Amino acid sequence: MSVAISAETPLQDDVRAMVAALNAYLQPLSPREFQFQLTVEEMADPSVVTFVAREPNGRHLGMASLKDHGGGVGEVKRMFTWPEVRGNGVGAMLLKRVEELARRKGIMRLVLETGEAPGFEAAWRIYERGGFRRCGAVLDYPDSGWSRFYEKMLG
To answer: Considering the domain boundaries, does residue 51 fall inside one?
Structure first.
C-alpha cells in the first residue's frame, strides 16, 4: 500500500469526517465525561500538528496529532484509521511521524490517554508495538479507571 503522510490543517472536510467517525466509535465505549476528544477546531490550535495519511489519489486513510504541552512533553491525540485499511501499517506510520516531529521539537516525553474498556484493544496494540509503556495518569487527566495511560521517553 502506497501512503503519503503530511502535516495538514484539520479544517477540511475529509479530516472532519475522520474526527466524526472516531467520535462515533468512541462514544459508546465509556462515559462521555471520561472522553477527552479534541475538536477539529482545537486541533487547529498552533500547539497541535495533525498528520494525514493519504493514498496517491488523495483519498484519506487516517490521521494522528501531536499536541505540544511545553516543558518537553508532547501528547499523541486523535489517532484514527479507516477500518478497511487497518492492519496495513498506516497507524504505525502515523505514530512514527508524530514521534519524529516530537524529537525534532525537542520533546523528551511523549504521552497519551486512551480508553480502558473493551473496544480499545487495537489502540493498545499499536501503542505498545510503537514502544509506549503503560504509566500512571498523565497531564491533568483524572485517574478514573476509564482511561489507560502510556508514555515513551524520547531522550
So the answer is: yes
Work out the number of other CB atoms within 10 angstroms of the CB of residue 73. Answer: 17
- C-alpha dihedral over 117, 127, 19, 139, to 10 degrees? 80
Q: pLDDT digits over 120-148, tens only? A: 999 999 999 999 999 999 999 999 999 99
Q: What is the pTM of this model?
A: 0.95
Strands 73-81 and 109-115: parallel
All cell numbers assigned to 36? 477527552
Q: Which amino acid is it at 148?
A: R
For the chain, what is the domain count?
A: 1
Q: Which three cell numbers stand for residue 79?
A: 489517532
Give the β-pairing of 60-70 and 48-54.
Answer: antiparallel
